[in-house]
Specification:
alpha/beta; 347 residues
């Protein structure tokens, strides 16, 4: 029976952690009875760190004209992909900021250059980037997405969601697209045959009701389109961010217990999304192992390169073998997947 918002809020606030985890684990077993835990070999390529949004929770962005601002050259991007393929990679995550010096031809040119050289999935451009590209080019979202798809875009990451509550977004990222716009980009993408993931960044300024609002928005969109392949909740990392500097010591990331509660609730509420991803990038390897008993069935990416969370002072590094061994020690069978959760290899 589907959980409604009121029930979800009651469970989130009142259920014992282990009971919440037990229920989420039971649901995971029902969806994935084979006992496999998947992962993907990929690399995050941040093609530019210039961004007009200036989100208060982000330590990665630089303003236009900053001495630390950059735009990667085509050859730099291609060389990163060569290195990724040598390590068995099947996907690149291509994301950057809203850079006013870049136009549609930059993005289509980058995509076409990648596809000319390599056979690799491009998981690229979060909804804020796509919305910005569309506005800047004077095109509709659908026209923009179809243009990017024709040039080589294969799927879309769920970045830029944070919390899908405009009350929270007004505090964290007042210049960023509203919740309804994020959802619209995803809906139009799904209608255009472009699959995506969905994410949630929690542990900043939101309340319990905001977390439920976020999960409900994602579930309702998935009911309409079926286009989300996975959901990835992760915790706010306050280091070096504007919001942490303004609030001082009172700003702290969510605890491990907070993370497990949100993860388990996500599994229980999102009954129409098959895959829930653990976040070793923010939680570390051991907590990611625990996550596999709190509803997660996917270990995410080997992340050959990651820059955004690292800018906030959090840097966990793992190899493919580390992930395989961690999954085995947690009592599951490791399997490498592609972007769309097709199994490529079992270990």
């Amino acid at each position: 029976m589907r959980i409604d918002r009121e029930t979800a809020l009651h469970m989130f606030r009142n259920l014992d952690l282990l009971e919440l985890g037990r229920r989420a684990d039971r649901m995971r077993k029902g969806l994935h009875p084979e006992g496999l835990v998947t992962f993907i070999v990929d690399r995050n390529i941040n093609y530019t760190n210039v961004c007009l949004n200036r989100c208060r929770f982000c330590a990665f962005y630089r303003t236009p004209g900053s001495p630390e601002a950059y735009v990667l050259s085509e050859e730099q991007i291609l060389e990163k992909i060569r290195e990724t393929l040598k390590q068995g990679g099947t996907q690149i995550l291509l994301q950057g900021g809203l850079n006013p010096d870049l136009d549609l031809s930059f993005y289509t040119g980058m995509l076409r250059a990648i596809k000319r050289e390599f056979s690799i999935n491009v998981h690229g451009f979060s909804p804020p980037e796509i919305s910005y590209i569309a506005r800047k080019s004077g095109m509709t979202l659908r026209e923009t997405l179809l243009t990017l798809k024709e040039a080589g875009l294969d799927s879309i990451p769920g970045g830029g969601a944070e919390i899908l509550s405009d009350r929270v977004r007004e505090v964290l990222s007042p210049a960023k697209i509203r919740a309804s716009e994020w959802l619209e980009v995803m809906e139009v993408a799904h209608q255009a045959g472009i699959k995506s993931t969905a994410t949630m960044m929690f542990g900043s300024v939101e309340g319990d009701e905001d977390i439920i609002e976020h999960l409900d928005a994602v579930r309702r969109l998935q009911d309409r389109t079926g286009g989300f392949t996975a959901f990835i909740p992760w915790s706010f990392q306050p280091g070096n961010t504007e919001i942490a500097k303004q609030r001082g010591a009172s700003t702290a990331s969510a605890t491990a217990v907070d993370y497990l509660r949100v993860l388990a609730l996500s599994r229980l509420y999102l009954d129409n999304i098959r895959n829930i991803q653990a976040s070793w990038v923010t939680q570390g390897l051991k907590m990611a192992q625990v996550s596999l008993r709190f509803g997660a069935n996917d270990f995410g990416s080997t992340m050959i390169e990651e820059n955004v969370v690292k800018a906030a002072g959090v840097s966990y590094t793992v190899t493919r073998d580390d992930i395989i061994n961690a999954i085995r020690r947690a009592g599951f069978g490791p399997a490498q997947r592609d972007t769309f959760y097709n199994i490529l290899r079992r270990f």
